[in-house]
Fold these 2 entries.
Entry 1:
Amino acid sequence: MWAPPRCFEEFRTRAATDIDGVCREVAESIEQALGTEISLPEDLRIVLSPEPIYIPPRALVRGGYDPVSRTIILSNGLWCRKTLVHEMLHAVSYFTRVPQLLEVFRRETDFVEGLTEFLTGYVLYSAYRECYQRWLSREYIVCSISYERFVRLFGALAHVYVSIRDLVRLYIYDPGRDWFREYEEFLRRYGLEDFLLNKPREMRRVPSSMLLEDIASKALRQRFGEERVSEFIELLYEAPLDVVLDYSTMLR
Ligand SMILES: [Zn+2]
């Protein structure tokens, strides 16, 4: 296994003595990168697990967020800044704040985790460029990208069709807005069929991420033609990770 980068030790030492300060800093970076306010749960707790966390059968995990107890848990020795960004994003997303969407989260894990990690990458890209490089290079497991297959889907979409801004609106909880209306508006704007709430009967068992790939291809074909669909598919399946996740060339 590769040795940890120097920043890993620095960050861990700082987090061990001032976790609140580190969280405040990460929260600010999220707001700046995503260009929106976030509202963390008032009683959010951060727990540093003294032992690495093992959840059978998934093996070791880097961290997690429990929306019921509003607790972020970080797995000793296995987490770093990217984990904290990811878990804080969960805590400020519609998918943990709106009860009906919590149900969607449980059912469509790939979609929600993929979008969470995609936005994590954007925060790293905007505020912590070295973490972003390590996230892409996968040299050190703690810093590496998770849910890669699903993150690629959002990267490909944001290159050819859907703006990051619209993905942010669909994700970051805003108590003043109704998510269900946002979602309808999103579908209408991009000419997409519902891939998340009421999937067509014969598609119920198809994960939303897969369905979105199909539905987006259809919309791209109708609006722009076959060439744009090929571009999308190539980004999704063939492009190197640092191309499909180059945020500087995505639609913002
Ligand atoms: Zn997650």
Entry 2:
Amino acid sequence: MLNAALVALVMVTTASTPQAKPAQNTTCPGCGGVVSAKSPTAMVRGQNYRFCCTDCGAMVQKKPDKFLHKDGTPKNRN
Ligand SMILES: [Zn+2]
């Protein structure tokens, strides 16, 4: 009985957790450099982004308002 309740709780929790979308940006949000599918990714505000290097990822995570619009679009996107 307890286990059933626990499973139900886990299912509800999982369903209500927004899933982060896969990174789709083609330029580094930090410096505008080219990124590819093999580039490192980092999560900023619950959204994954590709970065040219992990330093850019850490930089954007530190000051997301400087590099990202409120809707999550990178400001340096062409
Ligand atoms: Zn970069």
